[in-house]
Design goal:
It is a single chain. The chain has 9 helices and 2 strands; from the N terminus they run αααββαααααα. By secondary structure, it is an all-alpha fold. The protein has a two-stranded antiparallel sheet. Strand 1 and strand 2 form a beta hairpin. The radius of gyration is 44 Å and the shape is rod-shaped.
Length: 267
Amino acid sequence: MNEEANNKDPWEKYLWLGFFIVLLVWIVYWIAVLAGLAATESSFNRFDPLNTLFSGLAFWGIVFTVLLQKKELMLQRTELQLTRLEVEGQKKQLAAQNATMGQQRFEITLFSLLNLLADVIASMEVRITQTYNQRACFPIYRWKLQQTYNDRKNFDPIPTHSSLCREVYWLFKDKMGDGIESYFQILRYIVTFIDRSNIEDKHFYVDLVRVQLSKSEKILLFYRCLANDAEGFKILVERYGLLSELLSEDLFDKMDKELYARSAFQK
């Protein structure tokens, strides 16, 4: 703003200089008239010094007014630009505040869901020769699922490899009850919630879920998603690498791994 003011100062100086030149010429002329240097009285009548002075002053007054209006318009334009920048800054600040609040709401909801998942795990119980509670249930579930897998695989007629992997989980669930299914429903909801959110680093939050999964949980998740591919959980598993660090040797058959995209096993 100071630079614009400095750029306009010379114009005002020139206007004042012109004004003083006109005034000086008028004064000099009257001095000449009073000193008897005017050519004739007739030429003096034809040339009215007073009208000439007012005409010159009026011209410079118009120019001066125009330039003052120009200066005022430029100042108004500068103020308008500053106001616009201030409004844009406020908008950006408001957007940043909304983003921060949205992030906080997302994290509060996510950790509430993780606490709900932890409560479901805490309520798990499996009774065989003895009672297993909480996360100790997952190796038992894995063992029972593998038994079901082998029994179904040896059944006559032998099902196709893909149908075997898709059917075995529901046979296993019928034997073990709905406790494990409640666990997977909440786990699916958590990953879906992250995937559908507006946050930027979704993989970071899915990784918070993934690192809590044991090998037994990942194996159970592997066959659970094949059992109901229509709900879209398998796609999310492949998108976020929820089965990372799971090897072919960990599965009930090495060929089972081919039923997933490679991304499911990569971080």
